Amino acid sequence: MRAMPLPIIAPPRFETLHAMSLVGLVERYDGGSPRSIPDQWLRFGPLISRIAGRIGMTTYGVSFNFDRTSNFDYMSGVEVGGSHPPPSGMRSLELPQRKYAVFRHPGHIAGVRATFAAILGDWFPRSGYRAVDAPNFERYGTEFDPGTGRGGFEIWIPVDR
Question: pTM value?
Fold first, then answer.
């Protein structure tokens, strides 16, 4: 079977993220088959209004806690302020201040794995940067329509030289 060509991605911009507190649903996934992530988002959407101290309308899909076989934890979450405890069944996650390469994914959400493959398999080897062993995340602004999976979003990868 022939491998599909990697998509062409635009060069990233670089941002230093301020320290952030997130609250949301967390599930563990097999890195080879994270197919249930859309279902996690469907469960999370109706629960957002239960989260005290929410900041803004942006949502985050955070991948973290990777093991040697590429299994990982994934949070569907929102930024929060203050010291409110997470609602029952949810967890909090702290993201420290860190430098990120920020990539735009303009297409349908279904293409996100191909975009990650292009970032990791094409951009990083040529960039002079290395990915830091820290959470990476998708940032979904108001332009993203969760009903259609369209509107685009950003992929934030922690980097170092």
Answer: 0.92
